[in-house]
Amino acid sequence: MKIALIGYGKMGKAIEEIAVQRGHEIVLRITSQNTVVLTSENLQSADVAIEFTNPHSAVNNIKKCLDTHVPVVCGSTGWLQHWNEVQDYCKERNGALLYASNFSVGVNLFFELNTYLAKLMAVHPEYDITVEEIHHTQKRDAPSGTAISLAEQILQQIVRKKRWVNEESNNNEELSIISKRIDPAPGTHTIKYTSAIDDIEITHTAHNRQGFASGAVFAAEFLQNKKGIYSMNDVLHL
Description:
The chain is α/β, with parallel strands linked by helices. It has eight helices and eleven strands. The model has no long low-confidence stretch (mean pLDDT 95).
């Protein structure tokens, strides 16, 4: 499989390492210094693109891939206010898009655990809930896309919480997401239920970027030759 890497920072290099180990070829590497080579002609040499950049360029990068009929796996976060627009764009062009806030297999299993625990806790209003996420200081968006996904899963199950906020809150209708930036943490997410009697916590801690990179390559392998909009649930058959 021929892969275009749109975003060639630490994550892009980790993805390249895994992809090459699995027998794939990297045919295009886009950095912040050579964006002018992200053209339709160059993209057409790829079977699939993997996009890991930033909230400001992700939407345009996705659209360029869809315009060229190249399936695109996107791991950039912080741009989902444009999600409906991007979905429509993909459908109009009969394209293929797979978006995930986190490609780690472990994190996606953690998502399932989070949803199940929230269902159990929905009938226990004596517990308050917080989400905490810790990442390295180079992470540009806060809260993390993974933390937002976790919070939205909780909101779907626990109706007494109406919205999430990225701060500590004493409002019973608000779900607090606490964001911390500490080097060299690649990513830790904790869901904590607290009552006067006891606490319940679930935590996922990434030790390195390999899990994220492997998941992104699995997603690219899944998406090749497909049409439509997918998630890691489809990749992992969850």
